[in-house]
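Consider the tokenized backbone below.
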């Protein structure tokens, strides 16, 4: 059974930075896609970024272009979401996800999800 544990969320002022981490435990195959989603209050969950097993990255949320970076450490089964120049509209619960298929903006692609972590951007 694969379990995902997120960390690194919190409260930050506009223009600030946070780095989210997601560590997977259990049986992990290297061909998985590794993604971050988010759900803002009153909105549907949306894909943010995904990194493929070969390191290629896919961006699903246009609003994060040039500000958010996804990366992965194969050795520790951890992937990261570096969030820079955060804005109030980035406030959401952020979820990491992975599964036995490659990256997709479609949340139904993913088999395993973290519990979600709150990111609040406010002055």
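A designed sequence for it:
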């Amino acid at each position: 059974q694969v379990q995902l544990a997120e960390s690194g969320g919190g409260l930050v002022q506009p223009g600030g930075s946070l780095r989210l981490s997601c560590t997977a435990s259990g049986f992990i195959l290297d061909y998985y896609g590794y993604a971050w989603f988010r759900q803002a209050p009153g909105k549907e969950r949306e894909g943010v970024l995904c990194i493929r097993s070969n390191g290629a990255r896919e961006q699903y949320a246009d609003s994060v272009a040039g500000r958010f970076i996804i990366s992965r450490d194969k050795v520790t089964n951890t992937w990261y979401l570096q969030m820079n120049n955060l804005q109030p509209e980035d406030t959401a619960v952020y979820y990491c996800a992975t599964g036995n298929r490659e990256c997709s903006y479609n949340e139904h692609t993913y088999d395993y999800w973290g519990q979600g972590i709150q990111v609040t951007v406010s002055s």
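The chain has a mean pLDDT of 93.
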